[in-house]
Amino acid sequence: RVLRGRPRDLSGRRIVVSAGGTREAIDPVRFIGNRSSGLQGYALARTAVARGAEVTLVAANVTLPDPAGATVVRVESTAELRDAVLAASGDADVVVMAAAVADFRPATRHDEKIKKSHGEPESIQLTKNPDILAELGRRRLQARAADPAGAGETAGAAVPAGAAAHPGRGTAGAAGAVAGEPSGRVASGGVPSGGVGSGGGSEAAQGRVARGPHPEVIVGFAAETHDVLANGRAKLVRKGCDLLVVNQVGEGKAFGTSDNAATVLVAGGEPVEVPLGPKEDLADAVWDLVAARLT
Ligand code: CTP
Ligand code: CA
């Protein structure tokens, strides 16, 4: 394969990529996790940097070396991933959720190691995790409803996390209640007012005011074993994202390989097939579609 030269078509764009897989603690030494290696997310981060973007990579339990030129935030649990993604996406143009997020977590975390001498094992009660991708879509929808023109010159639009913070706080609170999360944690994660507020200020000073409700492009990933296109299309709509990269899993298509094939579902457009190839090629195909949607 000939390595193709990359356009600098993402230059000046702020992009958040999540990668890897979250872990949910059972006790201090054990967790519920998944097999995500982080390779696809890292390929996305690397190629976005190569195309000129300013990249924040939120990495959940990835053992790969930091990609040059990206800001890497390391997290472990879904709650931490959510905090980091929401904090970074307040003034981002694009968010790509390539991380495999645990759907459930143990309802309680034991402070001490569970000992087998305590008799027969107890079953582990699970509770649902917040859906970060759906939350991003919901917040943007709320921000658009509040500012239909997408004027972007108001303080609220310049600092969309601020605009989304109030509706977002309610949403996060509700999600937190469902998830049984202590409200303090949700409030601190759902309203990253310090960081985003000050960041937004210095950005405005640099003339880097975000345009309209952000992120402008939201990308999800999905692994499906059956009815790939129908399930993917439903997921795209349910989560309110613009692109959904759907992988067929099973039949020997293993995690941790350097190749990937996918169908990219496009909101309001035809699906794009990306043939089996290096994860960098899939990443570039995603960035081609993202770049076409950025104004
Ligand atoms: N995702 C997320 N938060 C979650 C679960 C998933 O942000 N709690 C994101 C993933 O990062 C991915 C997309 O949603 O980009 C789709 O994940 P997937 O697991 O396929 O979707 P689910 O809604 O969890 O549905 P399923 O029951 O098929 O697992
Ligand atoms: Ca899931």
TrEMBL record:
Function: Catalyzes two sequential steps in the biosynthesis of coenzyme A. In the first step cysteine is conjugated to 4'-phosphopantothenate to form 4-phosphopantothenoylcysteine. In the second step the latter compound is decarboxylated to form 4'-phosphopantotheine. Catalyzes two steps in the biosynthesis of coenzyme A. In the first step cysteine is conjugated to 4'-phosphopantothenate to form 4-phosphopantothenoylcysteine, in the latter compound is decarboxylated to form 4'-phosphopantotheine.
Enzymatic reactions: N-[(R)-4-phosphopantothenoyl]-L-cysteine + H(+) = (R)-4'-phosphopantetheine + CO2; (R)-4'-phosphopantothenate + L-cysteine + CTP = N-[(R)-4-phosphopantothenoyl]-L-cysteine + CMP + diphosphate + H(+)
Source organism phylogeny: Bacteria, Bacillati, Actinomycetota, Actinomycetes, Streptosporangiales
EC id: 4.1.1.36, 6.3.2.5
Keywords: Decarboxylase, Flavoprotein, FMN, Ligase, Lyase, Magnesium, Metal-binding, Multifunctional enzyme
Binding site for CTP: D103, K113, P130, D131, I132, L133, F221, K235, K239
Names of the cofactor(s): FMN; Mg(2+)
Residues annotated as domain DNA/pantothenate metabolism flavoprotein C-terminal: 10-141, 215-292
Organism, as annotated: Nonomuraea longispora
Compositional bias per record (Low complexity), positions renumbered to this chain: 143-190
CC terms in the record's Gene Ontology section: phosphopantothenoylcysteine decarboxylase complex
Protein name: Coenzyme A biosynthesis bifunctional protein CoaBC
Annotated region (Disordered), positions in chain: 110-129, 143-211
Gly residues bias spans: 191-202
One GO process term, biological-process aspect: coenzyme A biosynthetic process
Biased composition regions of type Basic and acidic residues, renumbered to the chain: 110-121
Textual note on the cofactor: Binds 1 FMN per subunit.
Region (Phosphopantothenate--cysteine ligase): 15-295
Biochemical pathway: Cofactor biosynthesis; coenzyme A biosynthesis; CoA from (R)-pantothenate: step 2/5; Cofactor biosynthesis; coenzyme A biosynthesis; CoA from (R)-pantothenate: step 3/5
Example GO molecular function: phosphopantothenate--cysteine ligase activity
Family: In the C-terminal section; belongs to the PPC synthetase family.
